[in-house]
Design brief:
The protein is an alpha/beta fold. It is built from 19 helices and 15 strands.
Length: 456
């Protein structure tokens, strides 16, 4: 594809799947904050993390090496859907009447229909090599749960998924996908763990949260020798694995003879945003002029209304404490349909970039996001996941701003997955049953009053 051509998509051959992940840590503004043990309130050691993760992933969590080789066993599975296509949204551009060029990197072609297998496969691989026999994990909307179920099936590992109860009920077909790939799926909070039983004792009708589900999965993993924990977002090694998205996108844009003025991703815990954005952070650190924008829901406004502080990664205070943007570990978000964005915290790496002004954040209501998703689908044909609609909203807003200003602008966003098993959300939208929710300031202040007292 060359500038001026009318091609709609840019493809790379399988041989061009990245051979290494990009580690953003060497290009971060300033040193990383320590990770704190939730019991001792002192910096964690590798031995502290071994009950949860294999050593290879612990090493990836802290390494300052810029490039980490992707094992050939992982690249072999990546070939099922990678490299993913980069599309030029020409029909959407025409509908908006914008001088902007809009590109989107589409991750919905993976077997699980989202970007999550990019990290699920290497996590399962490293656990298999380390002798793990079973994975315990959590999931919000189900993209991560279905992805790790798939990866565990490929490497012969058992898998138990604690699925946030509101999504367990809203998205039954995600549960079916996990079961199809051999996983056990429990609605969280559950009676299986002490953390779950404690929540249910206080609120038998609890709809759950990612913080609660993480507590259950961590407790499960820590209590069994054959089991390790896997997380689909937030952690450094997860963000590392997702950089295949942005690395491929940079190659594809080069083929198109283009480069973005703004890079956009939806943001919950940070995996999708990191995947598309981190490889461009390297360019920005080298002096390139571009904006990097994280789009999140107004109902769970972690980056836009949270504070940058040390907090627990889960509700039961079992997971390590990190410095991140947080709404408080006992924050209980409403049951919006973008279940993958309902997390109280954020990736420490993403948080540090936002805090330093390298990246920016915007919060948008869900009805505006669904409006954008419908417009996108009617132009481009793809039905987006509710989470992805936040990035679409951001891209359309940027394109309309370019129209108002009469200026060309190149926009890149990540379409993190399809919405084929999220049609109940679209039914609710067309039926007028979706409501916007701005989380009350008083409720945020109350949750933030319970942060741990870390003095490191």
């Amino acid at each position: 594809m060359t500038e001026g051509s009318m091609d709609s998509k840019i493809l790379l051959p399988e041989a061009r799947i990245p051979k290494a992940w990009y580690n953003v840590i060497p290009d971060m503004p300033g040193p990383l904050e320590p990770v704190i043990h939730p019991g001792t309130l002192q910096p964690v050691t590798p031995d502290d993390l071994l009950p949860l993760f294999p050593m290879a992933l612990i090493e990836q969590e802290v390494t300052t090496q810029r490039w980490i080789e992707i094992p050939e066993e992982v690249r072999d599975i990546y070939r099922l859907w990678r490299p993913s296509p980069l599309y030029r949204a020409r029909r959407l551009e025409r509908a908006l009447g914008t001088p902007a060029k809009i590109y989107y990197k589409y991750e919905g072609g993976s077997p699980a229909g989202s970007h999550k297998p990019n990290t699920a496969v290497p996590q399962a691989y490293y656990n298999k090599v380390a002798g793990t026999r079973r994975i315990a994990t959590e999931t919000g909307a189900g993209q991560w749960g279905s992805s790790i179920a798939l990866a565990c099936q490929m490497f012969g590992l058992a898998c138990t998924v604690y699925m946030v109860k509101v999504s367990f009920n809203q998205k039954p077909y995600r549960k079916s996908m996990m079961q199809l790939w051999g996983a056990e799926v429990l609605a969280s909070p559950s009676e299986r763990t002490a953390a779950g039983r404690g929540i249910l004792a206080g609120d038998p009708e609890s709809s759950g949260s990612l913080g609660i589900a993480i507590s259950e999965a961590v407790e499960d993993a820590a209590g069994r020798e054959d089991t390790r924990y896997a997380l689909g977002s937030v952690l450094n090694h997860v963000c590392l694995h997702q950089t295949v998205i942005g690395l491929e996108a940079k190659e594809q844009l080069a083929i198109a003879g283009d480069y973005p003025d703004v890079v956009i991703g939806c943001h919950g815990g940070g995996s999708n945003f990191a995947g598309i954005a981190f490889p461009f952070v390297a360019d920005k650190a080298a002096g390139k002029q571009l904006r990097i924008v994280a789009m999140e829901p107004t109902s769970c406004p972690t980056l836009t209304r949270g504070i940058y502080a040390f907090d627990y990664g889960d509700t039961a205070k079992m997971a390590p404490i990190t410095r991140m943007y947080t709404l408080g570990h006992d924050f209980m978000p409403p049951g919006i349909h973008a279940g993958g964005l309902r997390y109280h915290g954020a990736s420490p790496l993403v948080s540090q970039l936002v805090h330093a002004g390298v990246a920016e954040a915007r919060a948008v209501p869900q009805t505006a996001c669904f409006e954008a998703a419908v417009q996108f689908s009617r132009c481009e044909g793809i039905i987006p996941a509710p989470e992805s609609s936040h990035a679409i909203r951001g891209a359309i807003d940027e394109a309309l701003r370019a129209k108002e200003e009469g200026r060309e602008r190149t926009i890149l966003f990540c379409l993190s997955g399809h919405g084929h098993v999220d049609m109940a959300a679209y039914d609710a939208y067309f039926g007028g049953r979706l409501e916007d929710f701005d989380y009350p300031e008083a409720a945020i202040r109350e949750s933030l009053a319970h942060l741990p007292k870390v003095t490191v």
